[in-house]
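Hey,
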Amino acid sequence: MSQRDGARRLIIEGDSQYVGEWKGDRKHGFGTLTRGKYRYEGEFSQGKRHGKGVLWVGDKKVYAGDWVEGWRDGHGATPDYVGEFANNAPHGRGATSDYSGEWKNGKREGRGTCEEFSGEWSNDKKHGTGVLTTSRGVIHGTWSNGDLVNGTLYAQLPVLSKLEG
């Protein structure tokens, strides 16, 4: 039985197909794998997404970046996140539209800034020291599981206008 090597097209089943390079009877090199509404265009190694690639759902790009053995791993971007990934989740430095900082297993973890708060995070909650800006002023404090446990409010004083007369 001969092995597939080089450029080939393979219909897997129904509406699934792979068009690309093969090595040793496995997807290897550049190719496009389509399964229903999902389409991956990029590099393969030993039959898995590995290297640079883009994942589409219909006509919407849902991920572009690094892949390791079939998982999003390394630097990449989704429509709402840009940064580092590990095991298919945000992990390392990254940013969304409202948060920029460190991530662990898809949750905010470590130092980061989210809209009005800049400080330490754990398990997606404010945890540790930080600074919170409110309409009443700025709070320098310590948080535990998202709750302020102690802090100092530096009140914002009203702006006084010059009186004429």
